[in-house]
Amino acid sequence: MSDPELEAIRQQRLAQLQSQYKNNNAENKQAMEEKIQQMEDMRNSILSQVLDQSARARLNTLCLGKPEKGKMVEDMILSMAQRGQLPGKLGEKELISLLESVNQQTQRKTVVKFDRRRAALDSDDDL
Fold this sequence. Notes:
This is Programmed cell death protein 5. This protein is mainly α. The protein has helices at residues 3-50, 53-65, 67-83, 92-106, 116-126.
């Protein structure tokens, strides 16, 4: 075989492999998106079974304002439901008490220290 023929075969094979990779990658991506959507649907159905309407509305409001905290509370409620720790549907009052307990656990204390001597010395030096 001459070099131009060999190069043409290589280019053809490379194009064929790239198209196969793109097709497989697109199929995998679509399958992952479907799986993620299915998981979200399952989460929402479990939450709607466990929470009453007012509690679900409050949780949605929390998710809009603080997504990371809302996700954490959702995960906590789902794990409690899977373990059977929830006797029935959670109402808004029970959800509020759960949120308060989460806030107490995750609350960070901030400490601010002022060095008044340094600030006083700096202001005297300017005069």
